[in-house]
Amino acid sequence: MATTKAAPQASQTSQVPPSSPGTDGGTEDRRTSDSRRTAEEGRHLNSPLFLTMLLLTLVLLQSPIRRALSAPVMQSWTTVFVAVIVQALPFLVLGVLLSAAIAVFVPPSFFARALPGRPALAVPVASAAGAVLPGCECASVPVAGALVRRGVTPAAALAFLLSAPAINPIVLTATAVAFPGNPEMVLARLVASLLVACAMGWLWLRLGRTDWLKPPAHPSHEGQSRGEAFWGSVRHDVMHAGGFLVIGAMAAATLKAVAPESWLRVAADNPVLSVLALAVLAVVLSICSEADAFVAASLSQFSLTARLTFLVVGPMIDLKLFAMQAGTFGRAFALRFAPATFALAVAVSVLTGWVIL
């Protein structure tokens, strides 16, 4: 009897259709695709709505905006802002394109093979090799991290990190265009930047500790094709460097148009105060090295030595560079490296300006 009762139960159990292993996965895939489609539709709907609201706001406020722009102060501000942007933008775009090409298509092992085996000799060679990276400081940080990851001594990689944004052909050409009446500014910037890069490399070789330097992470474009990595690097650098260029141009225009002439005269007439003021300004503005020469040229109230300090300090240490260095090499490294670089860059700039300018 027990056997007879168990048989129907077994047959009933066998009649239950087995669940397909792909059913749950297919449902999840459909839900994911639906959510992505909804998000894309929301973006497509929100973008025209945002533009419409922006245009409507501008139309409603056109009279106050027109009155504000017609003021002499705003006209002066607009003139300086547009002049800085128009002069600097071609160099910025060219530098970003070349920087992305070198970062993607030139293997970091090339630099490792080109450097001498002795660290003390590798530092000046790496400093001079910075001329082959025609990009801004945004590009030099990941390249320096790649060099350390490929076995280059940290002192040489750091020397390359400091020199590359300041002595490459794009930056020196932009400096010559920004200072047509002072060609010696190009030589002064080249000499001062090389001296600071070599000195900081040797200083790290002498006093640096390995536990201060966090091993750099792998670059974000690994696993992508070269074309994808190239355009991804271009988009990243244009967005970051272009944003800082606009901020720097706005700050320079504001300083030129709004700051009382008496204040600028007091700061410019004091040699020590003028150098320190422009050094701090370079750190705060965080302007890309392809564009900083045009901002420095617009600060005509200050001496050439003070503006040289602006050009030497900015590509080596500013707010965005500090964040990038801390993210690449670690906070302990950035907290020691940044103040030493700032102090040495100011001192070398003053000495170089006194000799050359």
- Strand-residue proportion: under 5%
Gross morphology: globular
Mean pLDDT: 77
Question: Which runs of at least 5 residues are low in confidence (pLDDT < 50)?
Answer: 1-23, 39-45
Which labels suit this protein?
single chain; 357 residues; mainly alpha; 0% strand
Describe the structure.
This protein is mostly helical and 357 residues long. It has one domain (75-356). It has helices spanning 2-15, 21-60, 62-69, 72-105, 108-114, 119-129, 137-149, 154-167, 169-178, 184-207, 226-257, 261-269, 271-285, 292-298, 304-313, 319-329, 331-356. α4 (72-105) runs antiparallel to α14 and α11 runs parallel beside α14. The longest helix has 40 residues, at 21-60. Residues 1-23 and 39-45 have low confidence and may be disordered.
Helices and strands in order:
Blueprint: H1 2-15, H2 21-60, H3 62-69, H4 72-105, H5 108-114, H6 119-129, H7 137-149, H8 154-167, H9 169-178, H10 184-207, H11 226-257, H12 261-269, H13 271-285, H14 292-298, H15 304-313, H16 319-329, H17 331-356
Helix pairs in contact: 4-9, 4-11, 4-14, 6-8, 6-10, 7-8, 7-16, 8-10, 9-10, 9-14, 10-15, 10-17, 11-14, 13-15, 14-15, 15-17, 16-17
